[in-house]
Amino acid sequence: MEALTREFATVAAGAFGLVVGSFLNVVVHRLPLEGESVLRPLRSRCPGCRRELAAWENVPVLSWLLLRARCRTCRWPIPWRYPLVEAVTAGLWALAAWLAASPALFAVHALVLAALVVASAVDFDRFEIPDEVSIGGMWLAPVCSALVPALHAETWVAQQVSGAGQVDRIGAALGSLAGIAVGGGALLGVGWLGKLLFRRDAMGFGDVKLLAAGGGFVGPGGALLALFLGSLVASLVGAANLLRFLCLSRARVRARGATKPLARSLAAARIAGRYLPFGPYLGLGIGIVLLAWKDVRGVLSVFAF
């Protein structure tokens, strides 16, 4: 019976996540725009012709497929980001429901994951992370931690403050504040060092605020681990991006019959591949640690020996 309840909760969370993902698309589109509000107008509109969408045009994922990724009136191309945000949110919420030890823990995890989806999508689109997500997360993290102390059951600071037994509310709140300080401070240090070495800004302040907010939910150790995981994935993606631009550059040289040196193509590829938003990979690291702190720590300890 318990397994059946868990499976039902997972399916229900995934289905509700699809609906929430549809709302997150509105947030991603409107939040960075001047004069736009997430709640006004209440009905979704086509960005091309400004027509209010019918109910059947707002069905998550399915409407995008039925409309063949175009507005039925003006044929404005609907970006693939829309069904992707909906599907990713549904998958993350289902996973959070499957892994959560309690409904309260799931509620906080679901909220954080939704915020990370918004931050990542906006950063991909505009190379910026909304303060509503990062600064809002920094304010919300200690409150959620005090209400749900289990968030910091594995946070060393919270354990030391709480003493023997379970982590209490005060310990969880202090663990959250320590995570904010360490998360933001670590990335500030990385940015300062990068600027010193490369003589240019190596880290956006939006990334600093995002990791600080994430640290408030995963603690100081979790923030450092999230930074490591995000940097690792971003490095791999950056290397693949560099290789892609290099191949495109060499193909263009061959098509023109030119004799451009490989070094010049490599330099051009490095410049083109430099513009990589870090927020989505940082969000990925935070999400992994949030849902599977023990498992990730266990895997890393195995590779350490």
Give a structural overview:
- This protein has 305 residues and is mainly alpha-helical.
- 72% of the residues lie in helices and 0% in strands.
- It contains ten helices and no strands.
- The protein has helices at residues 2-30, 62-66, 81-99, 103-126, 131-147, 156-162, 169-198, 205-256, 262-272, 279-303.
- It is globular, with a radius of gyration of 22 Å.
- The model has no long low-confidence stretch (mean pLDDT 86).
Rg, alpha carbons: 22 Å
Shape: globular
Mean pLDDT: 86
Structural class: mainly alpha
Sheet of most strands: none
Keywords:
mainly alpha, single chain, 305 residues, 0% strand
Structure at a glance:
The protein is mainly α and 305 residues long.
What's the layout of helices and strands?
Elements: H1 2-30, H2 62-66, H3 81-99, H4 103-126, H5 131-147, H6 156-162, H7 169-198, H8 205-256, H9 262-272, H10 279-303
Helix pairs in contact: 1-3, 1-4, 3-4, 4-5, 4-10, 5-7, 5-8, 6-7, 7-8, 8-9, 8-10
